């Protein structure tokens, strides 16, 4: 209720004046360069009675059970250490971690999301401690496949991804692929596709038989990244997409990226995707697939448990490859990196913890609780013909052939927003493949400067 | 809650006006009484506002070093299509949140006030006011299911033979924003009606009786007596609903996250999204300040229709 316009002006002017004086001291710290970090050791008992604060995002069923188990085992092994666990859902972690890391009592260990928006920003702000020394000490550099370590690697200024220092290791692996209904495919005399070309042939046949080919719901906006990512990976190949997302080379307006968008437009026109997908939730789409209403759905291995329960032995999983290729190329990566903050006063304890939750022993715990570990135990062989067996073998195949393509939203700090909105526009016919590519490129160019 | 605040503000404002004429001596002791409230205000509102204003002049990702950009973030409010659209969408929201409920509530008030005594009036009032009491997340979740492809809205349309226009209302570029707006209309109508009915109750019955004796019809009665008498309530209703429209965040956050595309992005949602997910703290602060100024200006304009002598 403003009764005194003059007073308002005065107040506003005062506020601006204060703001201007404050502008002398700009918000944010100037980037701190990480200096020498001192000698490292595996000694945990010598740290005395300590407690470390850990922020993770392992809130879902199976992985939460695994994390609780691992934490209990760690505290049992090192009775002098207490773990203060702060567990947040992915979305909550993403929005609050930045504030936590910059606060006075920052946590010791955090799960940091890969790519420029999160890890890059944290590294650039000097908030994470490089762990190259611990990597050598604990042998992480030998245990984890290089392409997975690369995803957790950044230059010290946070500007170059997949090169420079290692900032953490991951506990779980994940790929996005095609879940299929074995019953529907065999009733139509179709074989599970191997390449994107096979896939399109199958889609046409399924549609002709009057069955919905792909159950797809994008009201949450994030499934669009997976749908486009899977197609783009199979069209452009892993090297091109990797370089694009790492901001190394290429452009979103390149022929292959536009072609992938064109394929999606065709799928919409031909009725291969759930109609009105922008108004259908991810869960509803998955439910439709599990109810046998669609032949395929495209989502990640994190749905393994859900689909196993929903469709049982009728469900299969595969990763597509480029036409004429026998090795799969698909969107994927690993769980958030377990990273150490620069604020931690007990780096040796933090490193021991990170090792404990991601090493071979932890892998067994993860497998036992229905998760896909980064490096599955050598003797892990789920029963043949089960969905878990498909997931395990596809994960191994993709890793063996270095066919992993990172999540596309890692590209720039604002890319999640730009890409998810653009895919919705593309599938609703509001944007042509060329306009779609131009929108993405505009965001990309603003960040990379080329 | 909201009602209580407004009622307190109106007498407060007029007291200040009355006093400013007398120019009393400054009584420093009096400020001591204000101090506790002022400290709370300064710590939780004043300082953050100043900080936000400061951030808005920088380009900053929330962590690293920041770059001074002057008024560039404010210029972007007009030049950045995405931001400009979000403010335009807020205009659409004002229509659905304010114009629609106030108009409908006035019509309903006219009808109800003609009926001398409506049985169970308090029950209706409570029912109509209920949306204001229910948590907005619950409201949004309920409406998601109503608007879904197999939801109530489409079931009704099919039942009356309009199956051809059924769609995923929140997933369609053309209908998502109005669909969210209608939730706002539904939220606001009870509030407006309760306000107006209490206003009508204060009008001396003799006025109506006199008008009727002079042969005034329902319309004449409404425009001659009811509407002028309700000026104060209308101003309050407009203020509350316009502010609610401009600061809409929860409905969009729960139902569409600004989608499909950016067709339902609103300034408050943009401010949140930029600050917490896309690392554009400066731009987020500029949106927040811009939105606050807009709300101040619009409420100041609405105050003009408030009669001078409400007490």
Question: What features would you describe in this structure?
Answer:
- The complex is a heterodimer of chains A (450) and B (311).
- In chain A, 47% of the residues lie in helices and 13% in strands.
- Chain A is globular, with a radius of gyration of 24 Å.
- Chain A has 450 residues and is α/β, with parallel strands linked by helices.
- In chain A, helix 2 crosses helix 16 and helix 10 (223-236) crosses helix 12 (255-270).
- In chain A, strands 7, 8, 9, 10, 11 and 13 form a six-stranded mixed beta sheet that branches. In chain A, strands 2-1-3-12-4 form a five-stranded mixed beta sheet, with helices on both faces.
- Chain B has 311 residues and is mainly alpha-helical.
- Chain B contains 14 helices and two strands, in the order H-H-E-E-H-H-H-H-H-H-H-H-H-H-H-H.
- In chain B, a hairpin with a 7-residue loop joins strand 1 (58-59) and strand 2 (67-68).
- In chain B, helix 8 runs antiparallel to helix 11.
- The two termini of chain B are 20 Å apart.
- Mean pLDDT of chain B is 86; it is low at 1-19.
- Chains A and B meet through helix 1, helix 3, helix 4 and helix 18 of A and helix 1, helix 2, strand 2 and helix 14 of B.
Core attributes:
heterodimer, A: about 450 residues, alpha/beta, D-Maltodextrin-Binding Protein, domain 2, 2 domains, six-stranded mixed beta sheet, five-stranded mixed beta sheet, B: about 300 residues, mainly alpha, MetI-like fold, two-stranded antiparallel ribbon, disordered N terminus
What's the arrangement of secondary structure elements?
The complex is a heterodimer of chains A (450) and B (311).
Chain A: H1 5-22, E1 50-56, H2 61-77, E2 81-87, H3 90-102, E3 109-112, H4 116-124, E4 128-129, H5 132-138, H6 140-143, H7 146-151, E5 153-154, E6 165-166, E7 173-181, H8 182-187, H9 196-208, E8 212-215, H10 223-236, H11 238-245, H12 255-270, H13 282-290, E9 294-300, H14 304-311, E10 315-318, E11 330-334, E12 337-341, H15 347-358, H16 360-368, H17 387-400, E13 404-405, H18 415-427, H19 433-448
Parallel strand pairs in A: 1-2, 1-3, 8-9, 11-13
Antiparallel strand pairs in A: 3-12, 4-12, 5-6, 7-9, 7-10, 7-11
Chain B: H1 2-20, H2 28-55, E1 58-59, E2 67-68, H3 72-79, H4 81-114, H5 121-133, H6 136-147, H7 152-159, H8 176-201, H9 205-213, H10 218-229, H11 231-246, H12 250-255, H13 267-276, H14 281-303
Antiparallel strand pairs in B: 1-2
Helix pairs in contact in B: 2-14, 3-4, 3-14, 4-8, 4-11, 5-8, 8-11, 11-14, 13-14
């Amino acid at each position: 209720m403003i009764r005194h316009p003059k007073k308002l002006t005065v107040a506003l002017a005062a506020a601006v004046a204060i703001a201007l004086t404050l502008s002398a001291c700009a918000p944010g710290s100037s980037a701190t360069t990480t200096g020498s970090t001192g000698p490292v050791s595996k000694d945990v008992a010598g740290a005395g009675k300590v407690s470390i604060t850990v922020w993770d995002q392992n809130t879902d069923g199976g992985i939460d059970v695994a994390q609780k188990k691992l934490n209990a085992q760690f505290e049992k092994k090192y009775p002098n250490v207490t773990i203060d666990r702060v567990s947040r859902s992915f979305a909550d972690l993403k929005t609050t971690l930045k504030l936590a890391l910059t606060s006075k009592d920052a946590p010791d260990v955090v799960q940091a999301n890969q790519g420029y928006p999160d890890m890059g920003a944290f590294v650039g702000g000097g908030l994470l401690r490089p762990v190259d020394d611990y990597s050598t000490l604990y042998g992480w550099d030998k245990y984890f496949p290089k392409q997975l370590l690369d995803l957790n690697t950044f230059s010290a200024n946070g500007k170059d991804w997949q090169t420079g220092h290692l900032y953490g290791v991951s506990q779980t692996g994940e790929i996005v692929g095609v879940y299929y209904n074995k019953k529907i495919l065999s009733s139509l005399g179709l074989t599970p596709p191997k390449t994107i070309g096979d896939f399109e042939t199958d889609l046409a046949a399924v549609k002709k038989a009057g069955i919905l080919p792909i159950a797809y719901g994008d009201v949450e906006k994030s499934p669009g990244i997976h749908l486009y990512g899977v197609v783009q990976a199979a069209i452009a190949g892993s090297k091109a997409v990797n370089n694009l997302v790492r901001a190394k080379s290429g452009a979103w307006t390149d022929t292959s990226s536009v072609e992938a968008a064109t394929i999606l437009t065709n799928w919409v026109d031909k009725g291969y995707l759930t109609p009105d997908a922008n108004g259908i939730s991810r869960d509803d789409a998955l439910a439709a697939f599990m109810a046998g209403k669609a032949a395929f759905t495209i989502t990640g291995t994190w749905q393994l448990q859900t689909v196993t329960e929903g469709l049982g032995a009728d469900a299969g999983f595969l990763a597509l490859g480029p036409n004429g290729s026998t090795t799969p190329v698909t969107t994927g990566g690993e769980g958030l990196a377990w990273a150490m903050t620069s604020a931690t006063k007990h780096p040796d304890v933090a490193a021991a913890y990170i090792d404990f939750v991601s090493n071979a022993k932890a892998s067994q715990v993860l497998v036992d609780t229905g998760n896909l570990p980064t490096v599955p135990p050598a003797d892990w062989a789920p029963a043949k013909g089960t969905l878990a067996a498909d997931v395990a073998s596809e994960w191994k195949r993709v890793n063996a052939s270095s066919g992993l393509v990172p999540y596309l939203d890692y590209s720039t700090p604002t890319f999640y927003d730009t890409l998810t909105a653009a895919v919705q526009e593309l599938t609703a016919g509001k944007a042509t493949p060329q306009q779609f590519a131009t929108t993405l490129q505009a965001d990309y160019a603003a960040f990379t400067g080329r | 809650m909201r009602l209580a605040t407004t009622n307190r503000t109106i007498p407060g404002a007029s007291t200040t006006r009355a006093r400013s004429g007398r120019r009393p001596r400054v009584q420093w002791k009096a400020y001591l009484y204000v101090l506790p409230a002022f400290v709370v205000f300064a710590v939780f509102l004043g300082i953050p506002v100043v900080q936000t204003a400061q951030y808005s002049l920088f380009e900053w990702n929330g962590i690293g070093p920041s770059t001074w950009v002057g008024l560039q973030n404010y210029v972007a409010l007009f030049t950045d299509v995405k931001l400009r659209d979000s403010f335009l969408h807020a205009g659409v929201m004002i229509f659905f949140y304010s114009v629609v409920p106030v108009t409908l509530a006035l019509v309903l008030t006219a009808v109800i006030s003609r009926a001398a005594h409506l049985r169970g009036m308090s029950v209706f009032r409570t029912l109509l006011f209920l949306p204001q009491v229910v948590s907005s997340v619950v409201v949004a979740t309920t409406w998601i299911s109503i608007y879904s492809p197999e939801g109530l809205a489409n079931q009704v349309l099919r039942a009356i033979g309009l199956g051809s226009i059924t769609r995923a209302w929140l997933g369609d570029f053309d209908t998502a924003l109005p669909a969210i707006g209608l939730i706002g209309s539904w939220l606001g109508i009870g509030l407006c009606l309760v306000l107006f009915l209490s206003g009508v109750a204060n009008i001396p019955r003799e006025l109506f009786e006199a008008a009727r004796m002079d042969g005034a019809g329902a319309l004449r009665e409404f425009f001659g007596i009811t509407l002028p008498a309700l000026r104060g309530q209308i101003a309050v209703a407009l203020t509350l609903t316009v502010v609610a429209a401009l600061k809409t965040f929860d409905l969009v956050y729960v139902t569409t996250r600004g989608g499909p595309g950016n067709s339902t992005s609103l300034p408050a949602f943009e401010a949140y999204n930029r600050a917490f997910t896309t690392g554009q703290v400066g731009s987020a602060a500029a949106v927040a300040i811009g939105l606050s100024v807009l709300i101040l200006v619009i409420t100041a304009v609405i105050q003009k229709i408030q009669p001078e002598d409400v007490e």
